[in-house]
Amino acid sequence: MSSLKAGRPSKSVGAKEVQLQDVKDNTKKVRVNFDLDEDLHAELKMYALKNKKTVKQILVEQIESLVK
Known about the structure:
Blueprint: H1 20-23, H2 38-50, H3 55-67
C-alpha cells in the first residue's frame, strides 16, 4: 500500500498558517526610470554578480547611504 496522501502539504497538521498581511510590504513604492550608458550598465551588472546582489539591491543601498 502506498504512503502517499491526498491534499496540500502546506495544510498538514502543525503547519503555520500565513496570512497575506504577514508578508505584504505596506510601504508604497514608486518607479524610478533613467538612462544609463551601456558600458556603465555592464560594469554595474558585473559588480552585482561579483557581490551576489541584484542591480536593484545595489542601487537602493547606494541611495539609502546618500540620504541617511
